[in-house]
Write a sequence for this structure.
C-alpha cells in the first residue's frame, strides 16, 4: 500500500523521532493505528506490520494510540525512542467513534469549527457549575456566570445571538445523550429565585473532555436543538486504569466579595434631611411634624452623633451615627467543599469506573446552601469480539435548604431590604427579628411597613429545593464485518424536583404569610440506531459513512400549588391555607425524529470531504411543516502536503478549510394551536380567559445558512499553532412574537432575518522549553458582528417585556445589532445636554436605544509555566463593549445610599442636601432647624421665561434630583453603561509531589494546588460587576442587572491522590 | 447472506419509525373550548380591577381626591406613558369580543348584549384617555388577523358612528330579553338582565353628557329619562362586591403597605368634605394616628398635591381600602366601582340644570347625595352633620340658594365619583368643576394635561396606524386636543 509508511510531511524540524510497534493482545500487529500527540495535530499511522515512526517536539511526553475497534491508549514515552504498544479491543460506539475517527485517524481532518478541551490537562477550580470553568477557554464562547446565589446558573452564548429571543442555549450532550439544561426560574411577584440550570450538576472530576461545536455544523451533527451550538461532554471511562486504580480528590474554597457598592456614611435614615422615630409607620409626616420613620431611604440627617430618637432607643434621643460596615457585614464568606472518589478497573475485555462526588456549598447570604451527591458508574464489556456493550448511569441528589429571593420586589426580596437599610442602623441589633411576645407573627424592624428585616428574610422566608436526577444510557455495537458495524444506543434523563417557598407572617408583601409547593418533572429519551461502514477504498481513497436515526421524546410537567394566606402562623403546609388553594399545572410533550447520513471521503491524506444530510421531523410544528432537511458539506486540504514544503520550512503545516451548512431550529411546543387559560375562580364560578398566545398553524422551523472558512497553521516545528476562522451565518424565518390583538394576545410567526458574521482567532505557542522549565501562552479572540436584516413589517420588536415595573426593553431594530437596550430617557438638546424644568430633568417619551448588549469582542490570554514539580497557570478574560443596565446602581442612588465618587453620571448623592439639626420640645416632639436648603443644581439646560435654552440654575434638594433622575430604576438611560471588563479569571499553582516519595506509601501520583477564580476585576462600570444577567420567564436576559448579589473571588486548595 | 440483505431491513424499519409522531397543537392542560359563563367572570373582574387600580394610582390623584406623598409624577403632571391602562383593557376586550361572538353563535342575545355593554364601557374609557384609538376593527367578529395592525378610529366616529358607542348601547338595550334564557357566570348582577339593561342606559347617559357640549343630545337624553330604564336605586348600580379571599379581593389589597401608605388624602378633597361637614370623609379616610391613639374625636388632615416638601399632613385612606397590621379586619370592604346610581342622578341633575331634559335638577341632586351617603353607609354625628336633613339644610348644599348650581352639582358628583376609575378626570375635563388648586411644583405651568400619550409600544408595533392617528389628532402630547376637548 502506498500509505504503508505514512510519514507526515509536516514532520517537525525540531524534536525527536520515536519508532515502535503496535500489536493487539495476541501480539498480532495492527496496521493503520493512529499515533497522535494530544492538542498538537501531529499524527502518524502504523504500517501493515504495525510499525510506526513519528517525530515529536521534545516537550511532548505522551502519545495517543487509537484505532477503531480498539481502546484508545495514552502512552507516556519518557526518554524512549522505541516503544511497543498493545491495544485492547475497544468498545467503539456511535459518537465516540465519530470523535476518535474524525479527530485522529485522519489526523487533521478538521473542516469545521469544533474545539476540544481536555479537562484532565487543566488545573482548574471546581465550581458548583462546570460551565463556569469554560470561560476564556474557547474563542467565540461567552460564558456569563450569574450572581444569583449558591446554585447560580451559567448563561452561555456561542457566536452571539442567532434568534430574536436571546435565551437560546447550546445543547448539552453527555456521552452521546442529550441532557436537559433548562432554566426553571422560581418567579414571585417581580422577584426570582435561581434554582440553577439543569446541566450544572455534572461533576467536573468525572469529565474527560469537553468538545464545543459551533455554528450550523452542530446542527448537522446533533439536530435542530443544537442551533446555538453544542457542548459535548465525554466522561471518564476507566479505560486508563491498569488493574485497579483509585483517585481521591478534595477541594476547599472560600468565596469573598469582589465588588461591592460604595455606601455613603455621612447621612442616615430619613427623608429631606429629617428623621425621628415615632412608631415606624410614618412614611413622611404626621400632624404636621416630619418623622420619616418608615421612609426606608438614606436622605435623613447627618450622622454626626446628634441626639435623635431612633427605632431602638425606646423614646430616648440617642447619638445618630453611621455603621459603615452594616450592609457588608451581612454577607459572610462563602465556603465550598468538594470531594471526589473514583475507582477504576480495566481488563482485556472490559473497563469500569465508579465515582462518588460530594459538594457542599455555603452561600454568602446567611442560611443559604447547596448540597449535592453524585454517584456515577461507567461500564463496558466486549462479548464475542464482535459485540460490545457499554452502560453508564448517574444518580444525582441535589438540594438546598434555602436560596435567596432576588430582584426588585420591595416587599419580599432580599436586596431592597439591604439597599434601603439605614446607614444609621446597626445590623447586629436586628438579629432578634421577632417582636417580643410575637414570635412567628410579627417581625421586628426599623419600621413597620417599608422593607423587611434582612435576618428575618433569610431565616424565615426560605426557598428550598430537592432535585433527583438520573442520567443513563446503554449502547451496543456489533461488527457485521470488520468494516461494517451497527449500533443501538438508548439513553434517558429523568429530573424530579420539589420546591417549597415559605413566606412568614408579617412579610411586607405577604402580611398573612404564604406557602407554595412546586413539583417539576422532566423526562427525555433518546434512542438512536445506525450502521456505519469504513474502508480504504483504494490506495488514495478512504471512505467512512454512516446512516442512522434518532428518536427523541421529551415530557415536561410542572405543578404549582399556592396557599395564598396562612391560618396558623409559622406552619407551612397546604392544609394550613386560609384561602382556597391556587393551582397551576403545565405539561408539554415533544418529539423529534431524525434520520441522518454522513459521508466522509479522504484523498491521499490531504484532501478531505465530508457531507452530512439529515432530516428532522419536529412534532411542535403542524403536519406539513414538520419535516426539515438540513444538508451540509465541508472541504479541507493540507496545503503543506500539496506544496511539499521542506522539513526545515518554518511553516510546518497549513490546512485550509471551508464549509457550508443549512440548519433548522426547533421551537417550544403548543405554539400552533389556541387554547384557553384558567383564571382564578370567583367563588364557585369557574373562570377562563383566552391564552395570551394565539396559535399559528403555519409556523415553520427557523432556518440558518452558514458559510465558514478557516486555516490552521503550525509554525516553527509545532511550537506555535494558530487557527483563524471566519463565519457568516444568515438566519431566516426567525420567529417573532407579534401582538395580535393590540397590546395583548400575541402570535408567533416567521418574520425576521438576521446575520451574524465573525472572526475567531486562536494562538498557542511555546515561548520557552527546556527539561526543567517550560512556558506556554495561548490566546483566543472572537469578534462577532450582528445585524438584524428585517423584521416582518415592523421596525421594532420588543424582545422582552418590562421587568419589575421598569419598562426596560431589548429592541430588535433592522440594520442594527440585536438586543438594543432601550427605555425611558431624558429630554436633551442637540448637544446632548439634559433639559430641566423646576430644576429637575425632563423625561422624553420615546424609547431611545442605548446600544446593543452584545460585546464588540472577547479576548482571553492564558499562560502556563512548568518548573520541575511546579505548575503555574494564569488566565485573563476580557469583554470589550456592549451595554448593561444596572438596577442596583439606580436603586441605591434613588434611596441615597451611595457615595459614588466615580459615578459616570457625575452625580454625588452627598452634596447639596437639605440639612437640619434635630432637637426636641418639652412634649418630646422633634424640632428641626434648617441649616441649609437643597442646593443641588443639575448640570444641563432649562428654558428661561422667553423660551430660550439657558444653563439650569435652579437649585433643588439632592433627594428630589436623585428621585427624578434615577426614579428607582425607571429612567433606563441613567443606569446604562458600557459593560466592558477585564478579569483575572484563573490563577493556579500546582505542586506535584515527587513520585519517589509517594511510592513508599503506595501512592502513584499526588498533587496539591492553590486555585483562585475571578481574582481581580477591572471595569469602569459603577457599583456592580458587569458580568451579570437577569432571569425572567425561564430565560436569560442579557444586559440587565436587577438587584443581583455582589460577585465573588474564590480561593481554594485542592489535593489529589492516585493509588 | 450478503451485507445488502442484512442492512436493508434495518434501514426500512428505521424509515418506517421516523414517520411516527404524536400530534398535539395545544397544551393538554389547557381547555380548547370556552363557554360564555366561563369567560364572563374574568372579563368583569379584570375590567373592574383595571379601572379600580387606575383610580388608585392615577385617577384619584389627578382630580385631587388623594395625593402622592412620594413619587409625585401624577400629581405634578409629569406623566410618562400609561401603558397598563391600554394593555389591560385591550386584553380584556379580546375576551369580550369572544363572548360577543359566542353570544351570536349560540343565538343568546343576552350574552351578546352584556358583551356590547362591557366593551362600550371599556372603549369609552380608552378613547377618553387617549383620543383616537383602534375601535371598529374590534367590532368585526371572527378572524383576528386584521387586529395585528388595527387602524385608529376618529373619536367623533367612535362616539357617533353607526357602530359607535352610543348606537351600540342602544342596540344592546334592544337585544336584552329580561326573563329570557338565563345568564350564568355573572359576578356583577347574578344574571339579572333588568339590571344590565339599566347599566347600558346609565352608560348612555354618561356618554351623552360627555358630548353634550359638542352635540345636541337633548332628544336622546329625554328619551332615556322618559323610558326610565336606568339605575333607580343603589341595588341596581354597577359595583363589584369583592370577596374576602385572595385573589378576589379589592386589587389595592394586593399592593404593599408602603405603596398604599404613600397615598394620602388630598388637601382639596379634605377641604371640601370638611367645608360640607360631610360624613363620607370618615369612610374615605381614616383619622390621624394621633387622634386614634388618643381615643379623641377623630381628626383628619389633607396633603396638598405636589412634590415633597409641600406638605406633611394627609391622612391615609379608609379602613375599607387595605388590610392594616394594627387593624385585624377592614371595617368595610370596598367594592369595585363601574358606575353608581349616584352618578346617574348627578348626570340627570346636570342635564336638567342645562335644560337638556325636563325635570327638577334639585330632586336628582338630592337623590344623588342621598344615594352616595347610603352607599358609603355613613354615620352622621360627631364632627359631621347630625343627619341627612341637616346636610341638605346647609347653605353650601342648597341648590336653590346658589347662583352657581352647576358648581354645586358637579362638586357633589366629584365627591361621589371617588374611586370610579378615571371618570372624575373626564368629568372635570369637560366641566372644569369643581375648581381644583394648582399642585405645588407642577410641571406645564400647573396646567392639567388633557390626555395620556399613547403607549410607546404602540408606536413601535403599529407604526403606520399610529402615525396616521398622530397626524389626525395633531400630535401625541399631553395637551393635544382630542375631539372631545376641541
Amino acid at each position: 500500500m502506498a500509505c504503508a509508511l505514512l510519514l507526515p510531511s509536516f514532520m517537525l524540524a525540531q524534536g525527536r523521532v520515536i519508532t515502535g510497534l503496535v500489536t493487539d493482545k495476541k501480539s498480532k500487529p495492527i496496521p493503520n493505528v493512529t499515533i497522535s500527540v494530544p492538542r498538537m495535530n501531529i499524527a502518524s499511522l502504523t504500517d501493515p506490520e504495525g510499525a510506526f515512526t513519528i517525530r515529536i517536539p521534545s516537550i511532548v511526553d505522551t502519545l495517543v494510540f487509537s484505532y477503531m475497534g480498539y481502546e484508545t491508549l495514552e502512552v507516556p514515552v519518557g526518554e524512549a525512542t522505541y516503544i511497543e504498544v498493545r491495544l485492547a479491543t475497544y468498545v467503539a460506539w456511535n459518537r465516540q467513534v465519530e470523535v476518535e475517527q474524525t479527530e485522529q485517524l485522519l489526523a487533521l481532518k478538521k473542516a469545521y469549527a469544533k474545539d476540544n478541551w481536555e479537562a484532565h490537562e487543566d488545573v482548574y477550580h471546581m465550581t458548583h457549575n462546570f460551565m463556569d470553568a469554560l470561560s476564556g477557554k474557547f474563542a467565540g464562547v461567552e460564558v456569563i456566570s450569574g450572581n444569583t446565589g449558591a446554585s447560580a446558573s451559567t448563561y452561555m452564548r456561542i457566536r452571539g445571538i442567532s434568534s430574536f429571543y436571546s435565551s437560546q442555549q447550546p445543547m448539552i450532550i453527555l456521552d452521546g445523550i442529550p441532557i436537559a439544561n433548562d432554566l426553571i426560574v422560581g418567579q414571585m411577584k417581580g422577584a426570582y429565585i435561581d434554582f440553577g440550570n439543569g446541566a450544572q450538576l455534572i461533576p467536573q472530576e468525572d469529565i474527560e473532555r469537553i468538545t464545543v461545536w459551533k455554528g450550523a455544523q452542530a446542527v448537522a451533527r446533533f439536530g435542530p436543538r443544537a442551533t446555538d451550538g453544542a457542548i459535548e461532554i465525554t466522561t471518564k471511562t476507566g479505560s486508563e486504569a491498569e488493574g485497579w486504580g483509585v483517585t481521591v480528590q478534595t477541594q476547599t474554597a472560600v468565596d469573598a466579595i469582589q465588588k461591592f457598592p460604595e455606601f455613603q456614611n455621612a447621612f442616615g435614615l430619613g427623608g429631606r434631611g429629617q428623621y425621628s422615630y415615632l412608631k415606624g409607620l410614618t412614611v413622611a409626616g404626621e400632624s404636621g411634624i416630619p418623622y420619616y420613620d418608615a421612609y426606608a431611604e438614606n436622605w435623613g440627617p447627618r450622622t454626626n452623633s446628634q441626639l435623635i430618637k431612633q427605632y431602638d432607643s425606646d423614646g430616648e434621643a440617642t447619638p445618630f451615627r453611621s455603621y459603615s460596615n452594616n450592609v457588608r457585614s451581612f454577607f459572610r464568606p462563602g465556603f465550598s467543599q468538594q470531594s471526589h472518589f473514583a475507582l477504576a478497573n480495566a481488563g482485556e475485555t472490559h473497563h469500569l469506573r465508579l465515582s462518588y462526588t460530594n459538594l457542599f456549598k455555603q452561600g454568602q447570604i446567611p442560611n443559604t446552601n447547596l448540597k449535592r451527591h453524585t454517584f456515577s458508574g461507567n461500564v463496558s464489556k466486549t462479548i464475542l469480539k464482535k459485540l460490545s456493550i457499554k452502560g453508564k448511569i448517574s444518580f444525582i441528589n441535589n438540594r438546598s435548604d434555602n436560596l435567596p429571593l432576588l430582584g426588585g420586589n420591595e416587599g419580599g426580596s432580599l436586596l431592597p431590604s439591604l439597599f434601603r437599610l439605614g446607614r444609621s442602623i446597626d445590623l447586629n441589633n436586628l438579629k432578634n427579628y421577632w417582636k417580643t411576645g410575637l414570635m412567628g407573627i410579627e417581625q421586628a424592624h426599623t419600621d413597620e411597613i417599608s422593607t423587611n428585616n434582612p435576618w428575618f428574610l433569610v431565616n424565615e422566608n426560605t426557598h428550598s429545593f430537592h432535585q433527583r436526577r438520573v442520567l443513563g444510557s446503554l449502547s451496543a455495537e456489533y461488527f457485521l464485518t470488520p468494516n461494517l458495524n451497527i449500533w443501538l444506543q438508548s439513553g434517558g434523563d429523568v429530573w424530579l424536583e420539589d420546591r417549597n417557598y415559605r413566606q412568614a407572617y408579617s412579610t411586607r408583601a405577604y402580611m398573612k404569610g404564604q406557602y407554595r409547593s412546586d413539583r417539576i418533572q422532566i423526562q427525555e429519551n433518546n434512542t438512536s440506531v445506525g450502521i456505519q461502514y469504513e474502508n480504504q477504498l483504494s490506495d488514495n481513497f478512504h471512505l467512512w459513512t454512516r446512516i442512522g436515526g434518532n428518536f427523541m421524546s421529551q415530557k415536561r410537567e410542572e405543578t404549582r400549588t399556592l396557599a395564598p394566606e396562612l391560618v396558623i402562623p409559622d406552619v407551612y403546609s397546604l392544609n394550613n391555607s386560609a384561602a382556597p388553594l391556587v393551582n397551576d399545572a403545565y405539561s408539554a410533550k415533544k418529539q423529534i425524529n431524525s434520520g441522518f447520513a454522513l459521508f466522509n471521503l479522504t484523498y491521499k491524506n490531504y484532501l478531505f470531504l465530508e457531507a452530512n444530510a439529515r432530516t428532522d421531523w419536529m412534532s411542535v410544528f403542524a403536519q406539513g411543516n414538520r419535516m426539515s432537511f438540513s444538508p451540509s458539506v465541508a472541504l479541507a486540504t493540507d496545503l503543506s502536503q500539496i506544496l511539499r514544503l521542506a522539513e526545515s520550512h518554518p511553516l510546518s503545516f497549513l490546512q485550509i478549510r471551508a464549509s457550508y451548512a443549512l440548519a433548522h431550529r426547533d421551537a417550544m411546543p403548543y405554539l400552533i394551536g389556541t387554547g384557553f387559560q384558567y383564571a382564578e375562580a370567583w367563588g364557585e364560578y369557574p373562570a377562563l380567559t383566552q391564552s395570551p398566545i394565539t396559535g399559528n398553524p403555519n409556523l415553520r422551523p427557523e432556518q440558518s445558512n452558514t458559510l465558514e472558512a478557516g486555516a490552521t497553521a503550525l509554525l516553527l516545528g509545532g511550537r506555535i499553532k494558530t487557527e483563524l476562522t471566519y463565519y457568516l451565518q444568515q438566519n431566516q424565518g426567525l420567529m417573532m412574537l407579534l401582538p395580535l390583538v393590540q397590546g395583548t394576545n400575541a402570535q408567533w410567526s416567521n418574520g425576521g432575518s438576521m446575520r451574524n458574521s465573525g472572526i475567531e482567532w486562536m494562538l498557542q505557542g511555546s515561548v520557552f522549553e527546556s527539561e526543567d522549565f517550560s512556558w506556554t501562552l495561548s490566546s483566543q479572540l472572537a469578534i462577532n458582528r450582528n445585524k438584524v436584516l428585517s423584521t416582518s413589517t415592523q421596525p421594532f420588536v420588543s424582545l422582552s417585556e418590562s421587568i419589575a415595573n421598569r419598562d426596560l426593553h431589548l429592541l430588535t431594530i433592522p440594520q442594527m445589532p440585536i438586543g438594543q437596550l432601550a427605555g425611558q430617557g431624558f429630554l436633551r438638546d442637540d448637544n446632548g445636554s439634559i433639559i430641566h424644568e423646576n430644576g429637575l430633568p425632563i423625561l422624553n417619551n420615546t424609547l431611545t436605544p442605548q446600544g446593543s448588549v452584545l460585546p464588540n469582542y472577547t479576548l482571553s490570554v492564558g499562560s502556563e509555566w512548568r518548573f520541575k514539580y511546579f505548575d503555574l497557570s494564569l488566565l485573563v478574560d476580557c469583554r470589550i463593549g456592549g451595554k448593561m443596565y444596572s438596577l442596583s446602581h439606580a436603586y441605591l442612588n434613588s434611596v441615597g445610599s451611595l457615595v459614588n465618587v466615580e459615578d459616570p453620571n457625575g452625580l454625588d448623592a452627598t452634596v447639596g442636601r437639605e440639612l437640619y439639626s434635630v432637637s426636641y420640645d418639652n412634649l418630646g416632639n422633634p424640632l428641626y432647624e434648617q441649616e441649609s436648603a437643597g442646593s443641588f443644581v443639575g448640570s444641563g439646560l432649562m428654558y428661561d421665561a422667553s423660551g430660550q435654552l439657558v444653563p439650569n440654575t435652579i437649585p433643588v434638594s439632592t433627594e428630589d434630583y436623585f428621585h427624578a433622575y434615577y426614579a428607582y430604576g425607571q429612567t433606563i438611560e441613567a443606569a446604562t453603561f458600557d459593560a466592558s471588563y477585564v478579569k483575572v479569571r484563573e490563577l493556579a499553582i500546582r505542586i506535584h509531589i515527587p513520585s519517589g516519595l509517594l511510592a513508599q506509601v503506595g501512592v502513584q501520583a499526588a498533587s496539591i494546588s492553590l486555585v483562585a477564580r475571578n481574582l481581580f476585576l477591572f471595569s469602569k462600570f459603577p457599583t456592580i460587576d458587569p458580568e451579570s444577567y437577569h432571569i425572567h420567564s425561564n430565560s436569560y436576559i442579557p444586559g440587565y442587572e436587577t438587584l443581583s448579589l455582589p460577585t465573588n473571588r474564590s480561593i481554594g486548595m485542592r489535593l489529589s491522590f492516585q493509588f | 447472506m450478503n451485507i445488502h440483505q442484512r442492512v436493508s431491513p434495518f434501514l426500512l424499519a428505521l424509515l418506517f419509525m421516523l414517520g411516527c409522531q404524536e400530534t398535539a397543537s395545544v397544551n393538554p392542560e389547557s381547555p380548547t373550548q370556552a363557554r360564555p359563563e366561563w369567560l364572563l367572570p374574568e372579563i368583569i373582574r379584570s375590567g373592574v380591577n383595571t379601572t379600580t387600580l387606575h383610580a388608585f394610582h392615577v385617577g384619584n390623584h389627578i382630580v385631587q381626591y388623594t395625593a402622592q406623598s412620594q413619587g409625585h409624577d401624577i400629581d405634578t403632571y409629569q406623566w410618562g406613558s400609561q401603558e397598563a391602562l391600554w394593555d389591560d383593557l385591550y386584553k380584556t376586550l379580546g375576551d369580550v369580543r369572544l363572548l360577543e361572538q359566542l353570544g351570536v353563535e349560540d343565538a343568546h342575545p343576552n350574552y351578546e348584549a352584556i358583551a356590547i355593554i362591557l366593551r362600550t364601557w371599556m372603549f369609552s374609557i380608552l378613547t377618553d384617555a387617549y383620543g383616537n384609538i383602534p375601535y371598529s376593527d374590534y367590532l368585526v367578529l371572527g378572524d383576528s388577523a386584521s387586529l395585528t395592525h388595527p387602524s385608529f378610529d376618529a373619536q367623533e366616529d367612535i362616539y357617533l358612528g353607526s357602530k359607535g358607542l352610543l348606537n351600540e348601547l342602544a342596540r344592546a338595550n334592544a337585544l336584552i330579553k329580561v326573563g329570557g334564557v338565563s345568564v350564568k357566570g355573572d359576578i356583577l348582577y347574578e344574571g339579572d338582565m333588568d339590571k344590565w339593561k339599566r347599566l347600558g342606559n346609565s352608560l348612555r347617559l354618561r356618554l351623552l353628557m360627555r358630548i353634550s357640549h359638542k352635540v345636541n343630545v337633548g332628544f336622546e337624553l329625554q328619551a332615556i329619562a322618559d323610558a326610565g330604564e336606568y339605575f333607580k336605586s343603589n341595588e341596581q348600580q354597577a359595583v363589584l362586591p369583592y370577596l374576602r379571599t385572595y385573589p378576589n379581593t379589592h386589587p389595592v389589597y394586593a399592593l404593599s403597605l408602603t405603596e398604599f401608605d404613600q397615598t394620602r388624602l388630598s388637601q382639596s378633597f379634605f377641604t371640601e368634605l370638611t367645608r360640607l361637614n360631610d360624613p363620607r370623609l370618615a369612610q374615605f379616610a381614616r383619622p390621624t394616628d394621633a387622634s386614634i391613639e388618643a381615643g379623641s374625636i377623630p381628626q383628619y388632615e389633607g396633603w396638598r398635591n405636589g412634590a415633597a416638601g409641600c406638605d406633611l399632613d394627609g391622612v391615609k385612606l379608609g379602613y375599607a381600602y387595605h388590610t392594616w397590621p394594627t387593624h385585624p379586619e377592614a371595617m368595610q370592604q370596598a367594592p369595585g366601582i363601574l358606575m353608581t346610581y349616584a352618578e346617574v342622578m348627578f348626570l340627570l341633575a346636570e342635564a336638567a340644570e342645562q335644560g337638556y331634559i325636563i325635570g327638577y335638577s334639585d330632586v336628582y341632586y338630592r337623590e344623588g347625595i342621598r344615594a352616595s351617603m347610603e352607599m358609603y353607609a355613613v354615620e352622621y354625628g360627631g364632627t359631621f352633620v347630625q343627619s341627612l336633613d341637616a346636610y341638605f339644610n346647609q347653605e353650601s348644599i342648597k341648590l336653590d340658594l346658589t347662583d352657581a348650581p352647576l358648581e354645586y352639582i358637579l362638586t357633589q358628583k366629584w365627591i361621589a365619583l371617588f374611586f370610579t376609575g378615571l371618570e372624575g378626570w373626564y368629568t372635570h375635563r369637560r366641566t372644569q368643576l369643581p375648581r381644583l388648586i394648582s399642585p405645588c411644583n407642577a410641571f406645564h405651568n400647573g396646567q392639567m394635561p388633557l390626555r395620556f400619550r399613547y403607549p410607546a409600544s404602540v408606536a413601535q408595533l403599529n407604526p403606520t396606524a399610529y402615525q396616521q392617528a398622530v397626524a389626525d389628532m395633531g400630535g401625541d402630547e399631553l395637551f393635544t386636543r382630542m375631539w372631545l376637548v376641541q
Notes: The CA atoms of residues 138 and 144 of chain B lie 9 Å apart. The mean pLDDT of chain B is 90. DSSP finds 20 helices and six strands in chain B. The longest helix of chain B spans residues 36-62.
